[in-house]
Predict the structure.
Amino acid sequence: MSLRTALAVLPDDRATVHAAREVLACFAMHVGEPLPADRISRSTGLDISRVLPILEALTKSVVIDCDSDPSLSSCTFEPSAVLKLEVDRYLRQGGSETTRMQSSIGKFRSRLGRG
């Protein structure tokens, strides 16, 4: 399985995509460290109800490991080289889209004389 499989299961709305990026970024910063869902919620600033479906999708797609704890209270991210590359690429992609959008907004405002 892969990250693409996990993301395909999740809704494609803006809030869910943002939440998935935040959760993956949190795991990427804590490789090999068991993270409970409430800690992920606190560190990302996301409501626990947003975090849990993402953790379930990532677990079912074998992106993170919660097998020893089915309640998702302790999940670990220990990626293979390919999975790490896939996650890094996904996180960079989001950053470039945000930068591109901010640049476009800045150009629009400068044309209108508002920035």
User: Anything to note?
Assistant: The two ends are 46 Å apart (CA to CA). The helical segments are 3-9, 14-29, 37-44, 48-60, 81-112. DSSP finds five helices and no strands in the chain. The CA atoms of residues 98 and 104 lie 10 Å apart.
